[in-house]
Amino acid sequence: MTAEVIDGQAYAKILKDEVQLAITQILENGVNCGLATVMVGSDYAALAYERRLRRLAGQLGVDYRHYWLGPEVTLDAVVRVVRQLNTDPAVHGILVLRPLPAHVSEAEVFQALDPCKDIESVHPENAGLLALGTPRFVPSTPASVFHILDGWLDAVGEDRADFYRRSTIVVVGRSNNVGKPTVSLGYARNAVVVSCDEWASRTGRLAEHTRLADVLVVATGVVGLIRGEHVCDGAVVLDVGINPVTDEATGKVHMVGDVDFTTVAAKARAITPVPGGIGPVTDVWLMRNTAAAAAGSLQSASGR
Ligand code: NDP
To answer: Ligand 1, residues 37, 52, 56, 197: which to mutate, most atoms within 8 A of Cβ?
Structure first.
């Protein structure tokens, strides 16, 4: 079997048109749609993500602000920036870019966020709501995984509810921002969900689990972790990984996923590429959540 390559750009384009419409309506009601990003240090992938968000915000009419803090900044200073943004009525969504340096506690920064502006659901209240199946905001990367999967099922004429009920979804990687919320969204679709972490690899049991997958979601940051021998024939594989790799000959940096595309595509039914798979939808979904936060503030301002 040679896998169908799922075009994430195409899904992103359709979603972008929908988000554009929502933002236009918000602006017509006299409310801005404000997104603030906070970044500490100069991680390569985070810088690239920030640039993409800035450009997309400009295209969609989102009022975008970026706060860059040097790598020596204290936890208190980061928390102060977040609290200022919490009380700024022109800011509706706040994204704290990862990674933060080791001396700046991610948990404490996330707890400082106003949950109503926490568009990635990293505040414990929002993470809890998501785990309970009643999310305030569905975080952008796990949302994109299922947005693409749902869309692809529609395109191939599979009944979504039936497909998920008879499927095993295996999620490799269990970070708070990607792996765990992906598991919660899989539960919400009544699939059997299996979660694998680094110990599954270290104990030599990773392939035993991943070969069970009808749907395999990989989010580890380990280049080429999943190879042909890890998947069974006909699996649908969603590669979340975005890893910068430097070409030794040219010195140029390009992005690769966590999945070895060639060997996996030879067995899978469908696969998302890197780049051009999950990433483009993630960016637009963040704007969707920003618009939802702005619309929420519009409702509370008008008493509706
Ligand atoms: P984290 O580093 O926060 O988490 C990585 C997870 O992978 C951990 O749960 C870790 O296990 C697990 N893991 C590490 N090595 C292995 C292994 N050998 N076998 C099995 N599991 C392993 O990363 P993120 O979740 O933030 O990101 C993962 C990848 O996704 C990165 O490449 C990142 O750039 C990309 N990404 C892409 C996005 C997109 O929009 N496409 C958005 C966000 C991230 P343990 O818990 O045991 O440590």
So the answer is: 197
